[in-house]
Each structure stands twice: as C-alpha cells, then as structure tokens.
Design brief:
Rossmann fold; globular
C-alpha cells in the first residue's frame, strides 16, 4: 500500500516509536491520527507533523477502555474520511518486583495494555478498514515476544501473545483485504525504557542507569522504517519482523510449522 493519501491511526503516538512512526507516515503523505493518553505528548506530535506540512489530529485515548478504542476509530473516520492503517503500538512494562512477587493490579495492567488493547483495538478498526476496501495493521511486539525474557515474564507473555495474534490473523487478507503483521524490536531508545520504574531501590536504579548508559539502543526511527515496510510491501502478511541494533531487519519464522506431510513438519 502506498501511504500517500491514506489515513493512519497510531496508538501511543505521543512519544517514542509511536511518534517516530507518525512522523514517518506523515512524511510519506498519510494523514495521521495520534492516539495517546498523554495529551501534551500527542499534541506535540501533531504540531511536529503540521510544522513539516503534514496533516494530523490528536484524540486522547486510554487503550484499556473499549469505549476509547472505538471512539478513536470513529474520530479517524470523521476527521479524515476513513481509516487505512492501524499501528497498535501503545505498551508498558511491569513495575518491580518481578513476577510472581508483582502485585496483581500491576501485572494485570501490563497484560491489558500490551495484549488486550491490541486485540480490542484491532476488533474496533476492522469494520472501518473494511469500509475502505481493506488496509494494514501493524502491531508492536518485541524480541521479548520470541525469546525467553527473564527480567519481565509478564511483558514477555504479552508480547508472545501479540506475535501469535498477528500471525493468526493472516486469514484477514483473503476475507477483508486486511494485512496484519508485527514488529519485534530489541531495546529501543524511548521514554518507556529511560523512565525510572516504580519499585526499584536506589541501588537497583544505579545499576539500571549504568547498564543503559553502556547498552547500544535502536533509534525509534529504525522501527518506523520497519512499520513503513510492512505498510508498503503487499506481500507481507502474518509476519513478525525482528529489528536489532546494528543488524539488518529480518522476518522471524515460526519455531514450528505443521504440514499434512510429516516429513515437512518440525
């Protein structure tokens, strides 16, 4: 799909990967709906797009609210006449202490933001995409969704689910001309990564800051480039793309494929 003249909706568009993707899609000619719970960040993204000559609008959205998710889709249709691209990008990590010591309300919130909102946001958007004759959905997963990620088992569980959900929606291309894929970044230099996580002791914060200072991190713009590849390449459907620091991005095949022929199954 050529983004030029299309409408794209990005959750978590007020910062980090969401802002970079918003700017990249706007630069490619799309009208952008920035959805974020952070009004200041969302409005700033809109201002950056408009100052570069693009079209954008902000809708304050709590992705844990089904009503808000449906409202953001309706807003996109009213403001720009339809919806062609959805980037389910909003996400959080789980504060300390690590599961299973993590209080239930904290790890349940991670699951709600990181996977429930992707499922519910997709369900809200599919009718609008169908009204346009099809479209593209790109979900933000993580390398934590394809490897054992010991620091945050709940985040890992949610991102594994995003990968599985994205792959399992491949049938939508045949049924509604909607392609669904997901990106799996490594460590990206975003406010979520830089933010001090609640529950850390001063010693733990010092160790974390020292580790981040030495860790090579991916720029959000590199993830935005991967999103644009998924939008533009009509051959990509039901795929997960890994984006690691200093390496070319590449598709990650499922660990197991089944076939009617046992000799072709792993």
């Amino acid at each position: 799909m050529d983004p030029n003249g299309k409408t794209a909706l990005i959750t978590g568009g007020g910062s980090g990967i969401g802002r970079a993707t918003s700017l990249a899609l706007a630069g490619a000619g799309a009208s952008i709906v920035v959805a974020d719970i952070d009004a200041a960040g969302g409005e700033e993204t809109v201002a950056l797009i408009e100052s570069a000559g693009g079209q954008a609008a902000f809708v304050q959205t709590d992705v844990t609210s089904r009503e808000d998710l449906e409202r953001m889709v309706s807003f996109a249709e009213r403001r720009f006449g339809g919806l062609d691209i959805l980037h389910n990008n909003a996400g959080i990590g789980t504060p300390q202490p690590r599961f299973p010591a993590a209080p239930a309300d904290l790890w349940e919130k991670t699951m709600t933001v990181d996977i429930w909102s992707v499922i519910a946001g997709t369900q809200a958007a599919v009718p609008a995409l169908t009204r346009r004759g099809g479209g593209v959905i790109v979900n933000t997963a993580s390398m934590a969704g394809v490897i054992p990620f010991l620091p945050d088992p709940i985040y890992a569980a949610a991102k594994h689910a995003v990968v599985g959900f994205s792959r399992a929606l491949a049938f939508l291309r045949d049924e509604a001309n909607i392609r669904v894929n997901c990106i799996c970044p490594g460590v990206v230099d975003t406010p979520m990564v830089r933010r001090q996580m609640p529950g850390f002791s001063s010693e733990e914060r010092e160790r974390r800051d020292a580790m981040l200072a030495q860790m090579p991190m991916i720029k959000p713009e590199e993830i935005a480039d991967a999103v644009l590849e998924f939008v533009r390449d009509d051959s990509l459907n039901g795929e997960a793309m890994g984006v690691m620091y200093g390496r070319p991005r590449k598709l990650i095949p499922p660990a197991v494929r089944f076939s009617r022929d046992p000799a072709q199954s792993v």
